[in-house]
Amino acid sequence: MASVVPTDIDGRWTVSQVRKVGSLTIDEHRVDIRPKLPVSRLFFLFGYAQRRRLWLAEDTQLDSAPDLVPAIAIAFLRKLSVAVAQGLLQGYRERLESDTVVRGRIDFVEQFKQRPGLASPLELRFDEFTVDIDENRILAAALERLLRLPLLDPASRRKLLHFRGMFVEVEALPRGLPLPPTRENRRNEHYQPALSLARLILANTSIEHSVGEHTASAFLVDVAQVFEDFVSAALRESLESSGGRVLSQRSDRLDVSGHAVVRPDIVWQRHEQIDAVIDAKYKAEKPTGYPNADLYQMATYCTRYGLRDGHLVYASGEETPKTVSIIGAPITVHCHALELTGSPEEILASVDRVAGAIVTSAPVEAPWSATRRSPSSAVPRRG
Length: 383
Hints:
Shape: globular
Structural class: alpha+beta
Helix content: 25-40%
Radius of gyration: 26 Å
Strand order of the largest sheet: 10-13-14-15-17-16
Strand content: 25-35%
Low-confidence stretches: 366-381
Number of domains: 3
Distance between the termini: 42 Å
Oligomer: single chain
Mean pLDDT: 80
């Protein structure tokens, strides 16, 4: 659902109430949805959720890009240049091959399938040390996807084409299948920033689609999901510094029979008891007929977990910070607002303040036991 209103400038429209930002092109027509946040801050939120402080040292040059597509190309090129500065990463990959000379080991099952009763050629299976590994396949796929997008400036396009030449020995990923998982280790650690950004590009771009005479392509980032992932990662760091552990997307039965479930974004657990429940909302949800849907949801969470306090975390400007006391139940919902336009350090300080409020409101007694615990009144600052 989106609201589209024409502006005073011919051919320009104001689009609001959308979760995604980016660019959509249909034939010669293009729709640009620009984020309210500076582009560098959007990248920081994504990077922090992925790898903790990945973007803390990133400068604000990304903000000079007029749209999100040029900005993400610039950021990806920076990370890619660092990743492949010493050449492409190599690793072992299993190969299947037919030959008259034994290399590796004979695949007898495949031999009997392909050539029953024949001794040559042989079906062989062996490990080859090559650049054609999953890490490089993901980077190469992101390069190709960016080159298909509109709005690329000539300098970025030239650099992308240059890097594409480095991946000529890397096979293309099969279309329509999930990206292969890669496990971080000391060997590929320098690839991780580029891989994180490549996955963002591949997850949020569409391959060109052609219907009749019409062609469409898009790069759209779900900024609400980026915000929710960031809040989960940053609050985990803050809250766990006060003890316990933070769980994301925990699923529990709501009713005795298990017909309904609850799945809050974040729960904070100490001594095997849930002390806080938190939902991250980029914008307040106001579906037709349910203008206070977020409050209904949080009141349900608090009832389910036996808590007197629940916490909703919004982006600043999207909801007014307030405290809502529920009539007929001993439940208070605290609505917090994170300021996202400051520096990364200021954003994290804002998260720490929210975490401090959550710790302060945590129950002294566990919801289902008489064991008393003294809650901390502040969250240690990040070093």
